[in-house]
Amino acid sequence: MAVSVHKNQTQSTRAWTLTANPHEIQRWRQAVAEALRRWGASREAIDLACLGVSELLSNVIKHVDDPRCRLRVRRVGERIVVQLIDRSPTPPSFEAPDWDSESGRGLWMLREMCAQFGWEKVPSQLGAKCVWFSCALTNKVER
Fold first, then answer.
1. Is the Cβ–Cβ distance between 48 and 36 less than 8 Å?
2. Which terminus has fewer CB within 10 Å in the chain: N or C?
3. Domain ranges of the chain
4. Tell me, what's the pLDDT at 97?
5. Can you tell me whether residue 25 is helix, strand or coil?
6. Beta 116-121 vs 79-86: how paired, if at all?
7. How many angstroms separate the CA atoms of 91 and 101, rounded?
8. Which ranges constitute the DSSP H helices of the chain?
9. Which residue intervals define the domain Histidine kinase/HSP90-like ATPase in the entry (predicted)?
10. Residue predicted with more confidence, 94 or 53
C-alpha cells in the first residue's frame, strides 16, 4: 500500500497519492467522508461523494494498467469537487449502459446523480487524465 498525504493541504483541499486496491476502497471512502464532515457537508453529499470515490477507484482497478493515482477532494464555495487522476489516457465511457449486464453502469449513474461530471487530459503528466464530479455541499435528495 503506497500512500502519501500531500503536505500542502489546506482546510478546503485534501489529497492523497495512492495505489488503487479493491481492499482499500472503504478506507478512501472514509477519508473523503471525514473531510466532508469537517466542512459541514450534508449526509446526502457525503453519500454521493463516497459512491463516486468507489466508482472512480474501481474503474482504475479494472481499466488502468498502472494503479497508482491521486485522489483529491476540494471545497469550492458551497460545492464539493472530487477528482481522481490516473495514468491512462483512455477517456471514460459515459454511454447508456446495457441494463442486463453485470457491470458498466457506475459512471453513467454517477453522472446522472451529480451536478457536474467530466474528465480532462492532464497536460503535465503524459498519458494521464482526471475524472471529476461535483455536487452541492448541502446536497439534498428531492422526495
1. no
2. C
3. 13-94+107-136
4. 64
5. helix
6. unpaired
7. 21
8. 25-38, 43-63, 106-113
9. 19-119
10. 53
